[in-house]
Amino acid sequence: MLIDEYEELFSCTSGDLGRTKLAQHRIETGNHSPIKQNPRRLPIAKTTEVKDLLRDMQERDVIEPSSIYPDPEKQFILDTDASHESVGAVLSQEINGQEHVIAYWSKCLSKPERNYCVTRKELLAIVKAVENFHSYLYGRKFLLRTDHASLTWLLNFKNTEGQIARWIQKLEEYDFEIKHRKGSLHSNADALSRRPCSNACSYCTTV
Question: Which region is the signal sequence (predicted)?
């Protein structure tokens, strides 16, 4: 296994990495574009091997299993956000006074979608996120949070036309309360809507 073969490359404790939480790395892919592949089922012959590897990584504390499962009796919280190149969302629930993530989702925007205005992109993020989490949200009242204040009134606007009207009509199939949340508190969905930063990103080097 990789951990055994390259033991000196993996940290066992947070002290191995020093005092900084920032670790830089680069994966050279040449002229190849990023791999985009839909999830697919593993062949039966590979299933046992993958389960054994996952179990081994859990025992070594490389990963940990999720202990939170969706509770149909509790309200779902959907946070959405959009950037120039993609949209993202986080589905969570509040359990014992603390929010726990149920699932993450993100999607790259097409070239035409990247030309949308900010408000249209933010609304697209909501529509796509709700569609993605349809099985969780349909038939239940949920809380929708966005850092784009205009959407709190746009969804109640009666004289919309074209694409916006179709999106709003689609959202009317769901029962939700929409709330504005300032950007400084909306980093969970915001991070999912952004492409990886370059090495020269001034924000990441000051965090």
Answer: none
The 10 Å CB-count burial string (b at 16+, else e) for 71-109 is eeeeebbbbbbbbeebbbbbbbbeeeeeebebeebbbeb
CA distance 166 to 144: 19
The order of strands in the sheet holding 76-82 is 98-108, 86-95, 76-82, 141-146, 175-180
Beta-bridge mates of residue 90 = 79, 104
Highest mean pLDDT among 26-35, 93-102, 122-131: 122-131
Max mean pLDDT among 12-26, 56-70, 136-150 falls in 136-150
- At 90, is the secondary structure helix, strand, or coil? strand
- The first and second tokens of residue 11, run together, are 């940290």
Beta strands in the chain (DSSP E): 76-82, 86-95, 98-108, 141-146, 175-180
- 79 against 69, higher pLDDT: 79
User: Distance (Å, rounded) from C-alpha 117 to C-alpha 135?
Assistant: 29
Greater model confidence, 145 or 154:
145
In which residue are the tokens 């090495």 written? 199
